[in-house]
Sequence to fold (432 residues):
Amino acid sequence: MERGRGLGFWGATALVVGNIIGSGIFMLPAALAPFGINALMAWGVSLAGAGCLAWVYAQLSLHLPAGAGSHGHIKLLLGDDAAWLGSWGYLLSVWTGSAAIAVAGVSYCLKIMPGLEQWSFAPEALGLLTIVLLLAANLRAIGGSIQIVSTLLKLIPFVLIIALGFWLFIDQGDAVFAGMSPQAIGWEPALASVGVTLFALLGLESAAIPARAVRDPHIVVPRATLVGVLLAGFISVAATCVVAFMMPVAQIAQSSAPIADFISRFMGSGAGLIVAIFAAISCFGALNGWLLVGGELTAAMASTDGLPKRAAERNECGAPVAGLMSCAAISSIFLLLAFSRRGATAFEFVALLSATTSLVFFVICALVALQAWRSGRLPKTGSTLVACIGALVFSMVAFYSAGLESATWGAACIAAGYAWRRISLARRNDSR
Fold:
């Protein structure tokens, strides 16, 4: 992609904010409500970890070759195998995360058009149609414009929610929290919800992945990453806590559209319907961003022999055709797998799987930063060292909190991919 047509600061920042404020923030209140005040502790752990990771990405982008992206940085310092493994883990996260986002978007669409629920295959069809339409937009290289518009639109309901929560607290005081879960404060329930809050923060690395699609990545990527994480972090914590703590836990835990139900409760069904529309726009805007990231990462891996060379080919608009199409196709498979479970468990399954597979990438990026710090490629400052160690510790905590099922699925997908890579390399060597 030509520099002049790449993402600038606002486009890259919108990519980060848009990918973070996607499906997670719209579905999270229902998942966090049963944990009560422990959700705040989980947010604290996740935000601290996200801050460390954002600092790591910013430093790598500032001091390592511009335009290489995270895949190139890992390859430079840890070699081909580590670069492939980290990128493969992240690619799995993009595929499963895209499915989770589509599930959430469809849930809000069904809130807008409840008549569709009578058709048994309607959720699957709507999700697949959305993926196809966004694939077409990215193939024409207009995904960045969609990202800025959708990000601006999705911020509207959160400003409304935060303002409403503030007004309710001023008007009713502590009584507004009467329906909150009585779950006792403890590290065990707090850690159990870290995996879910981690998924809500995935996207903090979005500007660093498609670095070749960003104008002046050496400058834009670190700035967009830090600004995007700060903005999205504040909005995510404030909005989800308002909804999770101010609605009766029994009601919100069963909700498939908690943000819309919260607005409907206090402002009427008409306002709730409007918010549901914005929520659907937000989810599909985030899905657009994930397809862009997945396509660029696939192309980056293909350009270094990590995937078939054809996946690196671009069309006249500069879009990685095979990369985008493969991302859309595999995300669709995970979408169908998720909908086989129905209800809230569909979203939770793919969300936790996405969070688990992303941890491989996070750990390797932190190790890259540590290696760069030791070798002098990064400034030997205490802040960088603390960020690297913090990112590693956070990744371990998040992996533990994701649970056995997600860990097993994630390990199986990563192992299968790595076995395929070794077999492909062996066949390639035999043919020479």
Summary: The mean pLDDT is 80. The chain is about 75% helix and 0% strand. The two ends are 33 Å apart (CA to CA).
